[in-house]
Amino acid sequence: MSESGFPSLRLVPKAEGPQSARDFKTDQEVRWCPGCGDYAILAAVQSFMPELGIRRENTVFVSGIGCSSRFPYYMNTYGVHSIHGRAPAIATGLATSRQDLSVWVVTGDGDALSIGGNHLIHALRRNVNLKILLFNNRIYGLTKGQYSPTSELGKITKSTPMGSLDAPFNPLSLAIGAEATFVARTIDSDRQHLQSVLRAAAEHQGTALVEIYQNCNIFNDGAFEVLKDPGSRDEALIRLEHGKAARFGADLANGVFRGPDGELFTAPVTADNEADVLVHDAHAASPATAFALSRIADADTLHHTPIGVLRSVERPVYDELMASQLAAATDGRGPGDLATLLAGNDTWTVD
Amino acid sequence: MKPGKPIRRLDRVIIRFAGDSGDGMQLTGDRFTSETASFGNDLSTLPNFPAEIRAPAGTLPGVSSFQLHFADHDILTPGDAPNVLVAMNPAALKANVPDLPRGAEIIVNTDEFTKRALAKVGYPADPLGDGSLDGFHLHKVPLTTLTLEALKDSGLARKDAERAKNMFALGLLSWMYHRPTHGTESFLRTKFAKKPQIAEANITAFRAGWNFGETTESFAVSYEVPPARLPAGRYRNISGNLALSYGLIAASRRSGLPLYLGSYPITPASDILHELSRHKDFGVRTFQAEDEIAGVGAALGAAFGGALGVTTTSGPGVALKSETIGLAVSLELPLLVVDIQRGGPSTGLPTKTEQADLLQAMFGRNGEAPVPIVAPATPAECFDAALEAARIAVTYRTPVFLLSDGYLANGSEPWRIPEVDELPEIDPEFATGPNREDGAFWPYLRDPRTLARPWALPGTPGLEHRIGGIEKQDGTGNISYDPANHDFMVRTRQAKVDGITVKPVEVDDPSGDARVLVLGWGSTYGPITAAVRRVRADGGEVAQAHLRNLNPFPANLGSVLRSYEKIIVPEMNLGQLALLLRAKYLVDAESYNQVRGLPFKAAQLADVLWAAIGTLDEEDNR
């Protein structure tokens, strides 16, 4: 891994030697339910971190409250397990004051989109150098099974015995609407894909939002089974790659097309329409196509769900702008003089 | 000055400028204050303005005022009742006349006393002609006409020229009280540097006002208030919010911790955000957050990274930040929470003062979550309070409340500028290596002296650790639900705060014979002290003490309280400190309180003290 591979980490000190996944494990017993998708994500992250090539002590994981937010306890880095919904705010303070740190936020659908929705959207629009991993299991786990802001309409849960009444958020649409510069989706059980998305997020300068479909085998088991089952997943998943045609299904028989009304739709690829298959451009200046892609999945069946990096664009990074203002304020003049400041311009002397 | 116009010497004067919110009364007051400060008087100010930016013109709710008390001796309050009222319109007159003692001077802008303007505020007849002001010394001045006349060659449109009438009034008052004028002229040149025509117009109006006083018959006398004899040193005038901002910057410098402010705009705290955002050359990072919660969250996150994390707000903001402050209690990280108190509950009185957040600061969190509290007594003391709050936060790894209020924030007084090297140093004592013999690092292994835990910054190799809001095992900081451990940790966090070293409370009891103690905290210091002086001047004996540390209380407070037969606690709330004193020390502390959005008056408190003395005397005679 060359250093230039992670421009977002150029201010973070490099590791002196090679690291392994073991270096990132703590001695704490992992306390998720057996079979929870969080185990797979934890293992994937632990084995991915050495790739960054930065000092372990310069990595910080910040989380809120919820099952996913226990994550920092299991990462042998610096970590803060904070309060419900506030992780993006706390991480913003850390990342904007310490550019030598790689700061990761671990959150869930309730934490990030319900109680912490405001902090999430503002972190995204500011484009602070944060990597936000949003574990979406479409349910409240830690409070034992209430519907979440990503639960499907009509969800029967403990708090909604006759079905939930509110329409769910689409986290990627929300992020794109909040001016996010990097938006991606992946799945807990697909380690290779998950790590490829983490890699892209780590390379990105600014806030990266990674939605990770995560199975809660206790309260919402099988929520994403159609995307995981070897028998259905090829038909259900659209694996987006920048610069490549958006084709999916067995033998890539299907594709994403743009209709005359500008809307995206999926259809079998034929010799006639092959040239019209949408070529995915994650770097497009306009968020319109990424937004349309974020909503192309069938809400009921999850068929043709895009995964991968939907959007990755460059925009000035908040913490860099903040640092440059500080630098500009002392440029050529040096740091401020406290005695001069305290005296001000209008003094008098009493003898 | 024309020969023949007499000059009368006074030891103190209280002036109130009053007008529409758009009349520039705050600016006028500020300028007169600056002139007065540079002349060397002691002074104290009280700005009073509506929450609305531009309430309907000419109405009572739209009246904005600025009161200034200046003297040839040291003074403590903006004064109970003005000697001089400048009323720019009928609303300003009507709103302020009830505060004037008989014989006070009133300067009115007669141009604004039209039928319509009088009707708008419910004057059935023109008060300037109906004899209702006969008890006052009334100066009828057509300020608008005179200003327009002075600016007829300025080339300005009538509307723009008219706006300079506040400077005409300032010029007139500057003549009346022999204020130096060059400061105002250079201020106007700087303020309107990009609009030289406006600058010149304001200066012309200002000089015209001065000359008007000099030449007109209606102002027969001018007054002289000689400079005060303050302790030797170099002085400037400073408001509470400015002093507090400088205190934070000084604390950053003296601790070597970069200052990080996470804040959300709220009256009357926003000026600290504005001020600190101007000092990036001191390495100050200011983050205007999406809400109050994010403001304190970012400050706490920055503290985890080794910054001096600060959040500034007022009461409603504190309510929103409570959960994060509790997290800071649990994380045991330094954090300053600056609460510029205002009238409550809810939105309350955003621009008026109150000190009703004491119990919120003390107890307003879930669980046992003790937080130290520091409260400055005067505008200039806000500087020292910021340094003291930072010392406690950094030394003990704890959030600290700094309770100022709207009166301190906007009021100003002369401040002896401290030498930088006389300011206290604050040592963050970061953890640099393992603290266990086996080479491990335990984030909750405490300093036995202070009970503070180590502050290990990300980037320090070998000290990687995880902390959170879940209860932690003593020492290791690992998650623990063990009952005995929780009991121990709750008691330890309390013991840490209880054990903070604070200065003993000083008692001012000159004769040593006083039986009544008046005890205050925060901005009531000025009126309480002025009341105590009055009582003593009239032969009464009263002891005075003032608390700067509200949590923990000074160690000697209990014995001080038990040394007096009667304890009076004046507060701008319904008795919050009194409640704490009664609970902690089992003493019969009597609350005297008001929540009018305005400071106490010295005369009012003097009556209360005399009554207390009288009660004891009666008991003796029974």
TrEMBL record, chain A:
InterPro entries found in the cross-reference section: 2-oxoacid:Fd_oxidoreductase (IPR051457), THDP-binding (IPR029061), TPP_enzyme_TPP-bd (IPR011766)
Region (Disordered) location: 1-24
Keyword terms: Oxidoreductase
GO biological process terms on file: cellular respiration
GO molecular function: magnesium ion binding; oxidoreductase activity, acting on the aldehyde or oxo group of donors, iron-sulfur protein as acceptor; thiamine pyrophosphate binding
Keyword flag ATP-binding: no
Record's protein name: 2-oxoacid:ferredoxin oxidoreductase subunit beta
Record lineage: Bacteria, Bacillati, Actinomycetota, Actinomycetes, Kitasatosporales
TrEMBL record, chain B:
Domain Pyruvate:ferredoxin oxidoreductase core span(s) in chain numbering: 514-578
InterPro entries cross-referenced by the UniProt entry: 2-oxoacid/accept_OxRdtase_asu, PFOR_II, Pyruvate:ferred/Flavod_OxRd, Pyrv/ketoisovalerate_OxRed_cat, Pyrv_Fd/Flavodoxin_OxRdtase_N, Pyrv_flavodox_OxRed_cen, THDP-binding, Transketo_C/PFOR_II
Sorted UniProt keywords: Oxidoreductase
Gene3D superfamilies in alphabetical order: 3.40.50.920, 3.40.50.970, Pyruvate-ferredoxin oxidoreductase, PFOR, domain III
Listed Pfam families: PFOR_II (PF17147), POR (PF01558), POR_N (PF01855)
Residues of the Pyruvate flavodoxin/ferredoxin oxidoreductase pyrimidine binding domain: 262-474
UniProt GO molecular function: magnesium ion binding; oxidoreductase activity, acting on the aldehyde or oxo group of donors
CDD domains: TPP_PYR_PFOR_IOR-alpha_like (cd07034)
Residues of the Pyruvate/ketoisovalerate oxidoreductase catalytic domain: 22-209
Any one biological process term the GO annotation gives: response to oxidative stress
PANTHER family according to UniProt: 2-OXOGLUTARATE OXIDOREDUCTASE SUBUNIT KORA (PTHR32154:SF20), PYRUVATE-FLAVODOXIN OXIDOREDUCTASE-RELATED (PTHR32154)
Protein's recorded name: 2-oxoacid:acceptor oxidoreductase subunit alpha
